[in-house]
Backbone:
């Protein structure tokens, strides 16, 4: 599988949110 | 941060400001079972991983990499970053592993999880070496950043990343021998294999970011 497919949460965290947005 | 003008001292200050917060995971009121200890440890790891992404994004040069390279670096180093953080928290507490301020484990508590005592002993031994070599906080910050920036098995090309490496050299050059040792000591293979085996035996369910990172490791292995 591609990196995007296997890292949905990681991609979201890297691209969008800071940890405080997520937790 | 303009890397072309930053001094080594400013670089270390940036690393200090990037430090993740302490994560809490309350210890169960009952004595640990295999499942409850693994549940506490995996819950903690998942929370720490989220903060690790925030930390990595603050390491100068990291966000200038392609998303693909950022993922590859984090895929490669996450367990080692978790381990060095644990060792740093435990450095002043011989015989104990400070997973979190409210999750302090004695070596013998590892007996309740199959195969984990060997890993606890390895972590305690590595922490002892850090203590003997008098690892300083500044050095810990630099070594952790080095683990991230050097983690990919593939070359990651970026001028900014090269500059980050250059900024790490002066703070590390004061004690290059011990620093090399610190990097040499931190290996995650056994921890990763143990977590995979616990997941495969259904001792503990693994969810979310931790599951992604663990699956990535499995796929890389294949």
Residues:
């Amino acid at each position: 599988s591609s990196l995007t497919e296997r890292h949905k949460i990681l991609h979201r965290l890297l691209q969008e949110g800071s940890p405080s947005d997520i937790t | 941060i303009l890397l072309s003008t930053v001094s080594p001292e400013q670089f270390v200050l940036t690393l200090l400001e990037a430090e993740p917060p302490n994560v809490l995971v309350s210890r169960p009121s009952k004595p640990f079972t295999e499942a409850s200890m693994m549940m506490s440890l995996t819950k903690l790891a998942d929370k720490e991983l989220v903060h690790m992404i925030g930390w990595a994004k603050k390491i100068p040069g990291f966000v200038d990499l392609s998303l693909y390279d950022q993922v590859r670096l984090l895929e490669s180093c996450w367990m080692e970053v978790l381990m060095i953080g644990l060792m740093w928290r435990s450095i002043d507490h011989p015989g104990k592993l400070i997973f979190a301020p409210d999750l302090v484990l004695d070596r013998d508590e590892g007996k309740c999880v199959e195969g984990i005592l060997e890993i606890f002993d390895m972590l305690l031994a590595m922490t002892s070496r850090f203590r003997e070599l008098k690892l300083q906080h500044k050095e810990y910050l630099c070594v952790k950043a080095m683990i991230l920036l050097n983690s990919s098995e593939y070359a990651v090309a970026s001028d900014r990343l090269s500059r980050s490496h250059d900024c790490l050299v002066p703070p590390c050059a004061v004690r290059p021998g011990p620093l090399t040792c610190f990097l040499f000591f931190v290996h995650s293979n056994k921890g990763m294999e143990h977590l995979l085996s616990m997941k495969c035996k259904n001792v503990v369910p693994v969810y979310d970011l931790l599951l992604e990172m663990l699956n990535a490791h499995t796929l890389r292995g294949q």
Remarks:
- The longest strand of chain B covers residues 96-100.
